[in-house]
Amino acid sequence: MRVVETIEEMRRVRDELAEPVGLVPTMGYLHQGHLSLVRRARAENPSLVVSIFVNPTQFGPQEDFDHYPRDAERDLAVLEEEGTDIVFMPSVAEMYPPHFGAWVEVDRVTERLEGACRPGHFKGVATVVTKLFNIVQPTQAYFGQKDAQQVLVITKMVADLNMHLEIVTVPTVREPDGLAMSSRNARLGARERKAATVLCRALGLARQLWSQGERDAQRLRREMTALIQKEPLATIDYVSVANAQTLEELAEVNPPALVSLAVRIGPVRLIDNVVLS
Ligand code: AMP
Question: Which end of the chain is more exposed for a tag (fewer CB within 10 A), N or C?
Answer without folding.
Answer: C
